């Protein structure tokens, strides 16, 4: 099994599998309403919706980097302005996240394992660090989302 295959397995576990740490992202988000996603139960904290949009943005950045493109921070897209908290808009946000997940997974699946130790187009991290880093980033924010959801009862 290649290192790319191992990263993909780890990613799949975090996203929708049975990961070691607890619930996967899919289970935490399952059944969440637009109202709950947009809520701010903690003053000064981002909403679940904002965090999900942030995760989508960074996964897109890493996907572009795996493609050999230089992609960096666009502040307006990092934590974009939230649309009206409607069920339709929340469904669109979830669909956008899932599409990002699919694009990342497809791009990583095509990646040549021997290139993992090379610097990505951003020039700061290796491709391995980029791929593994987005999983760590998702897990970090998954913890935030899980806590915010618990505060809502």
SSE inventory with pairings:
Blueprint (H helix, E strand, L loop, with lengths): L2 H14 L8 H5 L4 H5 L9 H19 L8 H4 L8 H24 L16 H25 L2
Helix pairs in contact: 1-7, 4-6, 4-7
Which features characterize this protein?
153 residues, mainly alpha, globular
Q: What can be said about this structure in brief?
A:
The protein is mainly alpha-helical and 153 residues long.
Question: Could you please describe the fold and organization of this structure?
Answer:
The chain has seven helices and no strands. The longest helix has 25 residues. The protein is mainly alpha-helical. Helix content is 63%, strand content 0%. The radius of gyration is 16 Å and the shape is globular. Helix 1 runs parallel beside helix 7. The mean pLDDT is 94.
Number of helices: 7
Q: What's the SSE pattern?
A: HHHHHHH
Calculate the mean pLDDT score and round it.
Answer: 94
Number of separate strands: 0
Main sheet summary: none
What is the CA–CA distance across the termini?
42 Å
**Which geometry do the CA atoms define?**
globular
Structural class determined from secondary elements? mainly alpha
Q: DSSP strand (E) fraction?
A: under 5%
Parts with pLDDT < 50 across at least 5 consecutive residues: none
Helix content: 55-70%
The radius of gyration over CA amounts to: 16 Å
């Amino acid at each position: 099994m290649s290192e790319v295959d191992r990263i993909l397995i780890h990613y799949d576990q975090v996203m929708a599998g049975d990961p070691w740490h607890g619930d996967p992202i899919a289970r935490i988000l399952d059944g969440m309403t637009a109202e709950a996603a947009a809520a701010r139960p903690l003053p000064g904290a981002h909403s679940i919706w904002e965090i999900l949009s942030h995760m989508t943005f960074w996964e897109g950045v890493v996907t572009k980097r795996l493609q050999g493109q230089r992609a960096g921070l666009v502040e307006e897209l990092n934590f974009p302005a939230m649309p009206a908290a409607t069920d339709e808009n929340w469904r669109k946000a979830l669909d956008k996240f899932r599409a990002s997940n699919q694009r990342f997974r497809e791009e990583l699946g095509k990646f040549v394992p021997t290139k993992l130790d090379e610097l990505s187009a951003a020039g700061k991290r290796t491709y391995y660090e980029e791929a593994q880093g987005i999983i760590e980033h998702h897990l970090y924010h998954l913890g935030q989302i899980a806590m915010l959801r618990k505060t809502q009862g």
